[in-house]
Amino acid sequence: MVARRFAVSHNDSTFDVDYDTDDGFEVLKYQLFSLTCVPPDQQKILGRDDQIVSDESDFASISDKLRLVSIDGVEEEIAAEVKEKSDKLAMSDEELARILQAEEEALMMQHFVASDNKEQVEQRIRPRVNQVQMYEDPHRQEMARKTVPVDKLEEKALISLGREGNYKPTKVEQDNAFLLQLLFWFKQSFRWVNAPPCDSCGNETKSQGMGVANSSETLYGASRIELYCCNSCSNITRFPRYNDPLKLLETRKGRCGEWANCFTLYCRAFGYDSRLILDFTDHVWTECFSPSLGRWMHLDPCEGIYDNPLLYEKGWKKSLNYVFAIAKDGVHDVTKCYTRKWPEVLSRRNITSEPALAAVLSDITRELRKKLSAEVISALEERDRIEMDAIERGLYSKDDASVSLPGRLSGDKEWRIARSEFVSDEKNSLSSSSCPVRRCIDDHVTKIYSAFSPVLSKLIEYSPSKKAAAEILEIFRNILVDLKNSPFRTRRTSVNSVSSSSGDIFNKTFASFSQLLDALSLKSELGVNGSIDIYLASDPVKTSVALPVVFHALDYVIYNIGQCARLDSRSLSWPLLKLNRLCSGLVLASGEELPFGIATCAFDGTRMSKWEEPNGAAGCWIIYQVAGNRMVELVAYELMSANDAPERDPKDWGVGTGRSGERVRGKGEGKKEGLKRELVDLAGHKRVLEGSENGGSSWHLLDKRTSQMFDKRFQRKTFTVSSPGYLANAFRFRFLAVRDKNATSRFQIGSIDLCAGSS
Ligand SMILES: [Zn+2]
Predict the structure, then answer these.
(1) Which comes out higher in pLDDT, residue 37 or 708?
(2) The pTM is what?
(3) Where is composition skewed (Basic and acidic residues) in this entry (predicted)?
(4) Catalytic residue among 23, 175, 244, 300, which?
(5) Given 198, 230, 256, 288, which residue is catalytic?
(6) Integer Cα distance of 261 and 263 in angstroms
(7) 229 belongs to the catalytic site
């Protein structure tokens, strides 16, 4: 650990910055961001003799005086950065020479062991070529589309874009988002089979070898019939391995062959340019051409993982040899897309010689394109050429080591171990150690929380009891459930005046819900017979994005009403009702899980998403930069435990401000001596350091908690900041310990809500 104080000059100002290498270089950049407004990715930090300071610099010896240059808009600076990056990614000549030599040697070896025999490889590819033709059958496509909840998936696709702030997606963006939803839905709707349960009693079975196919099985291309004997009743259960995806739409089960076969039909049924990927080391998956990426994208339906071609070699530790892409109009060798160890892979390719293989593929491709027009063929050939160029380029680029890939998840543990594809679950991670700065798209969350204030004041005014107040909120909740169940593009519901006693109060208090309806992009109108019509006010996706947030908030409010002693304005003390929830800030974390555990998930107001730090059990941090660099006073915050794995819950943490800023006049006086800064060095020993009080940009500790325990999942806990009175534009949570560090390497949190004092 090295702790230094630097004087950083930028334009005409100089800032004192304390930096501790334990915090990580990103934290230094973030501190500079909060001081200068130069975003971290546009910062260039220069030391003595204009040497570039990076995370690899020796912080013990670099100059006290640093200079910050913004590379924004300065073209040559950007060009230099890009060059530096591509230099890092590109291999040195020496490395390249070594690889080319290894490749040559492998080819030489292949020359000795492999013949020019084309049959064996052709025998394995041909059946798949016939199989992909089935995806073009309009009847099969129609039947496939009928099994998909299209409206739901379209809504989910639009929500996922809306959550990124994209409410006006292009057709290409929508198609891409829909494809991913199709993948996730498919993974949920298809079942993995090792040994099928007994037909007769449902108990476990064990393999009894192969049987002979009957006529109803051969009708759907099942030539291999696996037999399983029941461990309890000795009944024999048949497991026909169907090849016709039409049958798979009905059975919805199998191993990777069935999964990829059926999923590729779905992709074709929704018009995606798709191909079936056949890996000779016994796996099958799908690729779709992505117009937004301008290339083919890997999709593994068994795993629900996309665009991670190194998953098999790096994650599953597979020793690949041949990987072929089989489409309706061509067959390609795409092995090089899935490896970064080409010479090693080449040394395992001994079924046939490379020229003989290339001839087989081009023969089949020519055959498949026989009936196409010259124009279409030349377009396909152009695309092939672009793909081959990109593959060759990718092969010699360095592996992206910052992303670690997960082991195989499909199939049970024993089956994976038997295939040497098992990696312990704790290491299953798509985590990224260098996260980008992300913006929270969560102003709707703040709007919804704020809208509860008028509702609760009215309830306190009119309700005779806690029970009655909770009932009113339940009535409102049911109205929203009706809306949620209606088609998302035309959501509408009609509320007839409720005639019970709580209905009477509901009618009296209904006007106070208008702010909440507004936050949901809904409108209400008095209809005929005194009913109230509630319908969409603007973009339907805004309502779709907001609905889960309001459901979770309602549950929380109802729960709190049940818990409080009396229903009055003081008993409802949770901060979200009284304070300004910060939103739209920028977030940077020490690490995050892709794609579902990114840092901004802690701020989206929904329960099921969470921020997950794959290496966070030993300590991790998240920095929140207030929108527009506004100075605010943090007075309280709420943390919510995530959906599962209590061992990953936060136990000890500290909250600091990123900039000492100004004291709020009159507050916190007399506490000046008490500001302490807590750090944990790499060995995990806690130490308390004196923090600097004036000037500079040290991290001042605002609040510290130890031995906290979340008893339940989705449990919210409110913390009032112990040393308020600071105006700051950035806050850092340092999570020092999780509930059980022996059981996990991970940290996770369901949500973080920051509440500012009213200014
Ligand atoms: Zn049985």
Answers:
(1) 708
(2) 0.76
(3) 660-672
(4) 300
(5) 256
(6) 6
(7) no
